[in-house]
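Course assignment 3, question 2. Fill in each field.
Student: A.L.
Task: Predict the tertiary structure for the chain below.
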Amino acid sequence: MNNAEHYNEVAAALAGVDADVTAAEAQGMLCGLFCSPNEPSAARWVAQVLDGLSPKGEPAREVLEALTQLYHDTQDRLQNDSLTFEPLLPDDEAPLGDRAKALGQWCEGFLYGVGMAESHDPAKLPREANEVINDLTEIARIDTDAQSDEDSEIAYTELVEYLRAATLLVREHTALPSSSQPAETGAPRDTGFLH
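Answer field:
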């Protein structure tokens, strides 16, 4: 399933239970939660996405299935060294305003998730990670009424790529601190370059 199909499936499942959280915001929140030394619980994230709702029957099953799949897919992509992670956003054929709105919602979700994970202590994060958090705060206020022209499309594409790289950067500094630290034993780390 490609990213756009996945987006549509999650969006439809959330709409089916009248959720206030959008598909983009839900994945953004999850990515923010993954920017923590402790792996987030799928149940905690799902409860947050469906906060205040009591879905029943088939819509409940569909939304739980879609969110569980999104959790595992996002987890796999964030932990995969092949850098396959992508923000969950509408298809490129969707109107630019809709895509821009989803981009802003993704950033809002990410910032909320980072706050929930309690991993954003500006004093402990490197300058680059703090800059990313500030940038995402600005991107969350994106103009959704921008004209759909070639320059706007290029800017949107660049922002999506920035989100992808920014998520991996913040995660590297918050969830994976051991990978950026030398080994405690005093012995050099085995980088695997010589094998």
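Instructor remarks: Residues 178-195 have pLDDT under 50 and may be disordered. The chain has one domain: 3-178.
Grade: pending
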